[in-house]
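Components:
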Amino acid sequence: MRIPIQINEHSAEPLYHQIETQLRSLIISGQIGEGMLLPSIREFASGLNCSVITVRRVYQDLESEGLLRTRQGTGTFVAGVGDQTRERFKRDTVIEALEAAVDTGLSVHCSEEELKAIFMEIVRKKYHQGKERESGGK
Amino acid sequence: MRIPIQINEHSAEPLYHQIETQLRSLIISGQIGEGMLLPSIREFASGLNCSVITVRRVYQDLESEGLLRTRQGTGTFVAGVGDQTRERFKRDTVIEALEAAVDTGLSVHCSEEELKAIFMEIVRKKYHQGKERESGGK
Amino acid sequence: MRIPIQINEHSAEPLYHQIETQLRSLIISGQIGEGMLLPSIREFASGLNCSVITVRRVYQDLESEGLLRTRQGTGTFVAGVGDQTRERFKRDTVIEALEAAVDTGLSVHCSEEELKAIFMEIVRKKYHQGKERESGGK
Amino acid sequence: MRIPIQINEHSAEPLYHQIETQLRSLIISGQIGEGMLLPSIREFASGLNCSVITVRRVYQDLESEGLLRTRQGTGTFVAGVGDQTRERFKRDTVIEALEAAVDTGLSVHCSEEELKAIFMEIVRKKYHQGKERESGGK
DNA sequence: GTGGTCTAGACCACC
DNA sequence: GTGGTCTAGACCACG
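Structure:
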């Protein structure tokens, strides 16, 4: 299976962290289903054009979070995530991200109205964009 | 003049970066006015309980962004940025923060409605909180 | 790879600035090609007989100019700048240098004819010198 | 007498050095004639909006070069500069400036033809501009 | 007094 | 191995 991960070379964010964040999202949002076999470390690393050490670290970290399970000689699988856990995680993730953004707005003294207006515009753009792409793909 | 900077010792965010971010906010939000003389690097460092080198780096970085101007033997000043530039700077900062948050929402397949609801709740809480504090302070 | 940098110990020009200027020239003149891996800061510092901090500063400054790109744990690379950008960069550098020289001529009331004559003589000498050295080297 | 000095606040060049360079040019090019009384340190400093210490340093430096002469209680005068000295100085100054510019051209691998073309253009612009201004002033 | 430069050395995170 | 951060401390140049 092909795992859709986007690497941003120019970001200051460490490679392993970019991969972890995205893979975690894919698992928890259910886009990579429970029990599914992930690519081998070498295969994944080659696909991402990065070091095997980096992928190994990602698998280890997510395993220690309980999201993955490794079976010697067999491979790495997606562990079971309860619906309740999934929902709570999604919500927590979103809340954290939005709070950070609102804090930024507050720090530069952006008015409540302006912040809301900009937010609505961005949501409209990004969610609409996605729908168009889906429709286009049919 | 006393510059209100909050340092979080336990954060993974580098010291110099915390200071930079906050000082940048103070400048572009206009809370530190154009032409104002900032504390000397030694004085500031002592106040923040950090090395002079760290403060120097902050001043240097913000100077290379065009927000500060320093003259040897004289001190470091807030550079003159037009209101227009400041507004653009402010808007860009907010847009960037909100886009990151909405991207996060998209990545975990959060619905548009849920995202908006959570956002409104957070804004209400944070902006209201501020007002209460202001009223309480009177 | 060996980077040819000449340090002048006795100059009033700061060390880091000498290195920056020369390294910038090597990059924008295309002598160090796009994507090339530069020496590690420790290696470079040892070769230049200076502190790692000084080299680090050079790499950092050139990165903020967009000429270099560095990734933690991997190294520092020459950033991809288009030929167009490089040409503009080159031309700007030369124009700036020549304008400063002509301004000097004007400030001491040197006549247009004399200035041109001296310029031609210097160009002839320096460009010819270079060619002789190349021929001599064969 | 009003001494025409232009200070560039944004330059990294130290204040005293900017003043020295320009005053030296004015004296050696003969625009401030031999024996002329310069403004008092305080007066000059006030006119330039800088510290008296800075002007004092300028006068001292130029005096030690033999270009100025200070008489206790009387003031600072322009010392005599022989025509020969004046001519040699002018020439040396111009040569030094042009050599630096040509070196820059060489360092970025600018071709001889291009360098000459850019130079001619700049000379034409700057010398012509001056003449126009003179004519316009009449 | 101010900022500007450079050093040696430490510890951490990343690959 | 790589770069990233931070420290203490020195010395110089500027105003």
